[in-house]
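Example with several molecule types.
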Amino acid sequence: MAMLKTILGNLLRPSRTRAPADMPDVPTVYRGALAHDAARCTACGTCAFVCAPKAISFTQDPGVSVSWHFFIGQCSFCGLCAQNCPTQAISLDAEVPTGMNSAAGDGLRLESIVRLQPCTRCGAAHVPLPDAAIAALWGVEEAERGYCPDCRRWAASARLRSAFIPAAAEEVHHER
Amino acid sequence: MNTVWSYLIAFAVWPGLLFAAPLGWLELWFMRKLVARLQGRRGPPFFQPFFDFMKLLGKQTVIPRGVSRGIFLALPLVSVGAVTAALAIVPLPGNPVPSLPGDVVLLLYLMEVPVLCEVLAGYVSRSIYGQVAAMREALLSLAYNLPFLVAIIAMAQEAGSFRMSALQAAPYGIVHLLAGVTFLLALPARMKLNPFSIANAEHEIVADSHIEYSGPPLALFKLSHAVELVLLTELFAVVFIPATPWPLVNLLVYLAAGILVLGGVTLLATATARLRLAQAFRFYWVWGGIASAVTMAATLVR
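Resulting structure tokens for the full complex:
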């Protein structure tokens, strides 16, 4: 009789299951599908370093590009990569990953190619800094924007040098 | 020639396959939806039984190694054929088949064929689960057939004839009520519903006796079950619900009665847990036996 009361009560109440259309909202901190933005990546390797199951790795095509690789079969969705990325190039979206891993190991593999650019000063191939970082460091119109890390260091020390020895400022541009 | 055509129409169109299959799917959907609602779930969409059938039709048929191909494929066909033929005999309003002397006996024989097919399917498939299910089904049919057969035979005794039309036209009396209750007693086990869902106990033996079936043959078994639902509910309505002189009203009353019976049986199935085979057997031979004895006594007292 208690069972009858329970099930007849169920009949009068609305259903406890939800249809796909009225699913609850995904929390904003939900860690779902991983996305990588090549335009913001500096190929610093922090993500590959902090990734405990080694789902992220980098390969290089020297002088041309750096490739960021991700294999979902090893990912535990811990979010450390997104948390540690200095330029927010990695994000864990609210969506479900498109292809989860199968027994055959043919799960989703992502590859994101970061093109190297020649330094505007020395011509050495380097990974350009993201626009936001460049704007914060050097301003928008500065000539140092396209410099490689070596040239940036050189330019910084040159600025320091010219601050102490104003006469040396003219010589700087004749080097190299 | 005319008679042949009327039999063909009764088998294929009304009240046969063309009518019984959609009605069976409707009844299946109603039961599944009701069970879901009683359990606080949402339940399947209206066309789900149809979708299930169509999907199974498109699937591959796997025949287990060492199983005779002919009998493996023939069993579902025989099952659907027999249950549809049984439905064609039921004097639903507008049924073109003429009333035969002794068609009640033919009906009872045809209604046993799907059960036999299930038992054979279980044994033929060489699966241990199928064999356990077949054994359970066979034993259970010995139990529930007591009240089931007695309910119909008591009505034949009451009407003094083994014609379905005579059973339908019998003046309403106390025997109708008693035999109706006896019939309802057998119904959950015949429909393989919960307190007696012993042969298709999916938690114990994975599935029922057609566990090795797949694709179109399984679809035919499912169709056979759907038509059997229609047959059982409409048989109950035709025999135990008093008929009115208006065929259309009769039809509506029969359909409503069928849905009502299904609702009651589903309620019982949702509210109860599965019995063991010995318990079910004892239930049918004690309580079913008492109900049968009372029903037969009532026919004789008159």
